[in-house]
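Hi,

I'm pasting everything inline rather than attaching a file, because the server keeps stripping attachments. The sequence lines come first, and each chain or strand is labelled.
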Amino acid sequence: MAVTLADVARRSGTSTAVVSYVMNNGPRPVAPATRERVLAAAAELGYRPNRIARALRAGTTGVVGLVLADASNPYFAALARSVERALERRDTLMMTGNAGYLPGRQQHMVERFLAAQVDGLIVVSADGGADVAAQAVAAGVPSAYVHHRPVPGQAPLVSADNDVAVRAAVEHLRGHGHRRIAFLSGPHDAGPVAERRDAWQRAASSSGPEPLLLRCDYSREAAARLTAELIAGGTMPRALIAATDEQAIGVLAAASAAGLPIPGRLALMSCDGTPDSAYTAPALSVMEQPLDAMAEQAVALLLDRAPASASLPAAHLVARRSCGCDA
Amino acid sequence: MAVTLADVARRSGTSTAVVSYVMNNGPRPVAPATRERVLAAAAELGYRPNRIARALRAGTTGVVGLVLADASNPYFAALARSVERALERRDTLMMTGNAGYLPGRQQHMVERFLAAQVDGLIVVSADGGADVAAQAVAAGVPSAYVHHRPVPGQAPLVSADNDVAVRAAVEHLRGHGHRRIAFLSGPHDAGPVAERRDAWQRAASSSGPEPLLLRCDYSREAAARLTAELIAGGTMPRALIAATDEQAIGVLAAASAAGLPIPGRLALMSCDGTPDSAYTAPALSVMEQPLDAMAEQAVALLLDRAPASASLPAAHLVARRSCGCDA
DNA sequence: TCCTCTCATCTAAACGATTAGAACTGCCAC
DNA sequence: GTGGCAGTTCTAATCGTTTAGATGAGAGGA
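And the predicted assembly:
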């Protein structure tokens, strides 16, 4: 059915080698007249090189595996798009898999991607998993964690500096007159969320009363539930930094349902800066992660075997309505 | 570096054929003792079959390509996850690509996936593109459109019946006492949005005054802009059905910014039913699309070469706050 | 004329898995 | 003892590309 190199060779009266040389501007030159004939034959037959055969011969597939905790989460979805763009510049395709926050499924996806001979593996991990990238290392496949590494392991981690940005967020809320600034963290935070929590802890307790640390799952639902309880119990803080946009959106939903005005009675900020955050009601003030830069660095790490440069821009503050700004 | 069949054969003192038979419970039987030896050798060496080699030989890769208009759109993201689940049941991997609503890029992605020898192609298309699946048909690769087909073409379309559901939505708003029910459509609607618009047109004009048809891009931003204008001009309808959740969320954002209470001054519904819609403020009432069923049918069409059964459930109504319900 | 050198092209061996066909072992019946 | 048969296992071709080594044609120098 499919047109092969041999077909083109026959049609143009040459050999498969010449056709290959033409197709790749091969390692050897081809006479101009011959090149024309080959190109014409390929066009007529509608030849499309078989990447599988090439992959077998070359030992490289031009495919990278991306394991996500959850592609429905706008933060991860945005990250995935950034990765796709970075890969496209290198003419590389992307396989994706959702681990659904389950370490077992994450392991399973990695296993399948390795069997598919991916050239590299990017893991945007869920909390609490094992060092899945260890399998990749064992298989000789370069790998990198982005955003979060569950345990210190052999694969590099690409993550922006959260300290600067969270400090800026705390200062910004102080600028709106808030003394007690609470933080909504994950259930048992680690990785970037822990960094953010630490940065907040240092910045928020540097002056003024002891700040409040809240915890809930990384979901809109959990944050909404927690918020509803706090409002009902009369213990809702007046200023809050949520670790993730998803949580912040949950807070927003519950506050709206309970009639708690934002930013009037609650100044809210969060730490991802997904596209969604610009279209909540009110619009979320966020510290926006440099997703494109993170993706580019991860891909460079895998494909160009570049050293992990530490020169990643920090997340930067985008002030909208929810913190008390007018914009 | 990698362990091959030949390595396992050498280690276990057999031939590659026997090892292959063992690995696949091959087309021929193997003596129990030999099977043990092979299995042991494979385990010791950490053998992992090379899917690329298998693919070249078998002519089938176990990979399906999914071309999305925009994976950051929660509706498409949810659809992608449904497709992934359907594929997983058939032990098939998924390559994804974003076309970014650009017909040219869509074409390009299809081209690249075909070069990668995908076993099938699912296109969740943007408006206005050519019949990209025609390339797949030409290459002998089964393909299917999901949700939307830009032009009538050779590939089947999987899409749920919108008529029943939109009619239900109109009835539901009538139940809340609304006589004039407006509809927010796309810029030049086609496919499912056109079906929804038609269903609304029929249902809404069946009794009462002529209903209002609005149009804007399928983005939060565009819907927000339009809404702001309508509110400023005093022409905002009291009841509105948005074609997509994204648009509805934009309406919500602008209404909130302008202080227009929902559902008090505007009863709002929309037509996707993404996970996001449950966590807006107020929560969106939606007609929820049967994404799992759509994905399953598309995958069955490609991989099981099942006939396109018309037995797809229609989108069904989920009533939340934004329409005026208490829930 | 013969040798060398360059340029263009062809031949054929990989890559790793699958699987027909051949080959070898015992075993049983005649 | 020979033929046949079943049960195992081996050999080798195949999928489509890539690319090193062999081949051949023509130009130029001696």
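Chain A has three domains: 5-49, 61-158, 163-289.

If the labels don't parse on your end, tell me and I'll reformat.
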